[in-house]
Amino acid sequence: AQSVTQPDIHITVSEGASLELRCNYSYGATPYLFWYVQSPGQGLQLLLKYFSGDTLVQGIKGFEAEFKRSQSSFNLRKPSVHWSDAAEYFCAVGGVNYGGSQGNLIFGKGTKLSVKP
Amino acid sequence: GAVVSQHPSRVICKSGTSVKIECRSLDFQATTMFWYRQFPKQSLMLMATSNEGSKATYEQGVEKDKFLINHASLTLSTLTVTSAHPEDSSFYICSVRGPFFGQGTRLTVV
Fold first, then answer.
1. Contact (Cβ atoms closer than 8 angstroms) between residue A2 and residue A17
2. What are the residues whose beta carbons fall under 8 Å from the beta carbon of B34, sequence distance 6 or more?
């Protein structure tokens, strides 16, 4: 079955430190991969997405993610975290079996990021 | 990215009443929209696919008579929670192709 695993429920990093949020997926075909950020009580903002091509994807707010097919991973990274990055981060997978980029996604359970001053 | 407007952002209703949530695609025509539900501190689960001009497609376990979806135009889909109960309290969020999400609606049934 298709699934997304975010192993870390909660991560705390110091402001200015680097960040890596892990995401592993299970999908039978070429996946479409997404990272979203959600602030409390708010909707989801798309940080970046991967459909094909270069496996290192640049997103908004200084985030990037790398698709590693051999590891079924799509980890999110940021070289220097800002206090405003504190939020919930969701990894999601879609694909041709799920309407492609139409929007039928399977989400991970999310990783809450806290930032220490 | 696409601009998706969802209204209301918060609603409190009495048990037994119905609540309508609107999802609008502001800058392109969306033949398909998706409705998700998010329980507190949980992930998002797809409830249904809203298709313009035809019936919605519901995910397994979602009661189609409780969660009525109407997609009457290319820019508007509505989700009506009928005869709401406290267990329907949740965060409901829609999306369009991208996918891009609306701001979500916090429903509290008292």
1. no
2. A102, A103, A104, A105, B46, B48, B49, B50, B94, B95, B96, B99
Taking the C-alpha atoms of residue A67 and residue A84, their distance in angstroms, rounded to an integer, is: 25
Yes or no: say if A75 and A17 are a contact pair by the CB < 8 Å rule: no
The mean per-residue pLDDT over the stretch A3-27 comes to: 96
β-strand pairing of B57-58 with A64-68: unpaired
Query: Which of B97, B100, B103 is nearest residue A42 as measured by Cβ atoms?
Result: B103
Contacts of A105 in chain B (CB under 8 A): 34, 44, 46, 95, 99
| Residues of A in Cβ contact (< 8 Å) with B95 | 44, 103, 105
Contact A21, A6 (CB under 8 A): yes
Q: Using the beta-carbon criterion (under 8 Å), do A44 and B1 form an inter-chain contact?
A: no
Smallest CA-to-CA distance from B32 within A89, A14, A100, A5 is with A100
Span B21-35, pLDDT tens digits: 999 999 878 888 999
3-state helix, strand, coil in chain A (%, to 5): 15, 50, 35
